[in-house]
Amino acid sequence: MAYLDILLLALVAAFLVFRLRSVLGKRTGHERPPHDPYSRRDNAGGESRDSDDDTIVALPDRTSKNDIPEDSPAAGGLRDVRSADDSFTVSEFLEGTRMAFEMIVTSFANGDRDTLRPLLSDEVYENFSGAITEREGRDETMEMTLVGIREAEILEANMDGRVAFLTAKIVSEQIEVVRDASGEPIAGDPTKVTTVTDIWTFARNTRSRNPNWTLVATEAPN
After folding, report:
1. pLDDT in tens, 76-120
2. What digits encode the pLDDT tens for the residues 45-72?
């Protein structure tokens, strides 16, 4: 019986080997190599290339600095700024303007002179700090929520020696209210969103290593 069991097992094993070979096939030495998803392909035939001597062509920098709008009245001045500082781009300046605007108006409302000081010229800082002092003297508080900036565009650009001056129009939506010592609102509306337009001028020495622009003038639109 033991020999019969061994014979049956051998027959079963032989049958399984036969079935596997019929399903999987057998190697002949001419099989295609497994696909390598990281292999490079040439431009003509699409065949993979394994040589270490292949030339690697660097892709061009797609980040264009030529973003000066030709239809802008400030185009000529912006080109002058670009000539003085080849790292200048309109898009980066406007992005920085939005960030600076939010920091400045929020810090002014909160009476945060430390944050305001490096962002403003001496003259503008004195005006902002003076307004904060007057508000504090009346024991008033100001609450300001910047809902969002709807628009930021450059109106003027010019060079004065090495210093670049850019004037931007910033249209924002704000909720603003001033309260007296008892907390009662005396100006503004805490439930109303107001559209505000500001004209701000920024300056920067193009030879300076400091990339930041300074607010040097503010005005209301005509």
Report:
1. 999 999 999 999 999 999 999 999 999 999 999 999 999 999 999
2. 444 444 444 434 443 444 456 889 888 9
Other Cβ atoms within 10 Å of 204 Cβ, number: 22
3-state secondary structure string across the chain = CHHHHHHHHHHHHHHHHHHHHHHHCCCCCCCCCCCCCCCEECCCCCCEECCCCCCCCCCCCCCCCCCCCCCCCCHHHHHHHHHHCCCCCHHHHHHHHHHHHHHHHHHHHHCCHHHHHHHECHHHHHHHHHHHHHHHHCCCEEEEEEEEEEEEEEEEEEEECCEEEEEEEEEEEEEEEEECCCCCEEEECCCCCEEEEEEEEEEEECCCCCCCCEEEEEECCC
Which domains can be identified in the chain, with CATH numbers? Answer: 75-219 (3.10.450.240)
B/e letters for 171-199, b = 16+ CB within 10 Å, e = fewer, are ebebbbbbbeeeeeeeebeeeeeeeeebb
| Phi, psi (deg, nearest 5) at residue 137 | -65, -30
Contact criterion met (CB below 8 Å) for 155 and 199: yes
Least confident among 7-11, 148-152, 192-196: 7-11
Provide the CB-side half-sphere exposure for 218 (13 A, CA). 18
pTM across the whole model: 0.70
Which of 127, 124, 121 has its CA nearest to residue 205? Answer: 121
